[in-house]
Design brief:
Elements: H1 7-30, H2 37-92, E1 106-114, E2 121-129, H3 130-139, H4 141-146, E3 149-155, H5 158-172, H6 175-179
Antiparallel strand pairs: 1-2, 1-3
Helix pairs in contact: 1-2, 2-3
Length: 182
């Protein structure tokens, strides 16, 4: 079975076939055969076969596009469930001391993962998707057990986020930033 062409091409082909059927009927009428149904049918039979093939191709295209859209939606739903799971794991393993009731997780953030040493964070990072990023960190069992608290700093924009992260890494020299996070 051939790969369906674009919907626009199919519509153009159907219009062309419709025009050819009209021309065949008009030709039969010009030859005085309109009163002869068999002659008209014989004149338009090849065009009707083309229309039938185009309709089958259009139906196949609808099926292919529907399956692709459903696969995409299922993949998106899996990613959302994975992100939600990471966030749940992150939240379940952190002790929250204070959270602003108006906290909006959208924006630019720098975060510090703190371990047993209250003076030096384990890791300093940045993210524009803070909950998903913290969920990724907390999804790693080794890291999750080492992290005792998290500090999140909201930044005005990406430039401030980058500068803040650089300054904090330079100041604290976090172990996981220096040795590598993996």
């Amino acid at each position: 079975m051939s790969v369906p062409q674009s919907s626009g091409d199919l519509i153009d082909d159907l219009r062309d076939a419709h025009t050819r059927i009209k021309i065949a009927v008009l030709g039969a009428a010009a030859r005085g055969r309109v009163s002869d149904p068999d002659a008209v049918l014989a004149a338009i039979t090849p065009e009707l076969a083309a229309v039938k093939a185009l309709a089958a191709e259009a139906a196949l295209r609808v099926v292919v596009e529907t399956e692709r859209r459903e696969r995409t939606e299922r993949a998106r739903a899996r990613m959302v469930r994975l992100d939600e799971s990471r966030v749940r794991n992150a939240v379940a393993n952190l002790v929250v001391t204070e959270v602003d009731k108006e906290f909006d997780p959208r924006g630019c953030f720098v975060y510090l993962l703190w371990g047993a040493d209250p003076d030096r964070p384990l890791y300093v990072g940045k993210s524009t998707k803070i909950l998903a990023r913290l969920g990724q960190h907390m999804g790693d069992r080794q890291k999750r057990h080492r992290v005792q608290r998290v500090t999140v700093i909201r930044c005005r924009d990406g430039r401030q986020m980058n500068r803040t992260e650089e300054k904090l890494i330079a100041e604290y020299q976090p172990t996981l930033n220096i040795l590598g996070i993996e």
